[in-house]
Amino acid sequence: MQKLGEDVVDVLRTIYDPEIPVDIYELGLVYDVNVSEEGDVHVLMTLTSPNCPVAESLPVEVEEKVKTIDIVTTAEVEITFDPPWTKDMMSEEARLELGMF
């Protein structure tokens, strides 16, 4: 199932926060990806803030795109604000892209 996990991460890297031109994975919004032998996927993620304008649509987009992977049987997205997202959670690549070095 490692391959499925990698495929899920590849899909997550195609989803962008509309306010920041960096994908949600590199932004550090994805806290955990769990996949089962049966093809069930659970994504634990956060948003840049509880008042994020895409709070309703982004989790749905993540779920729908993960479901496009052939061997995924179910996809569930769980939103958490614990721990709260900070800029420190961004990858070096994201910080470079945003000129934060």
From TrEMBL:
Domain of life, per lineage: Bacteria
MIP18 family-like domain: residues covered: 6-77
UniProt cross-references to Pfam families, sorted A to Z: FeS_assembly_P
NCBIfam families, per database record: SUF_assoc
Protein name from the UniProt record: SUF system Fe-S cluster assembly protein
Annotated organism of origin: Phaeocystidibacter luteus
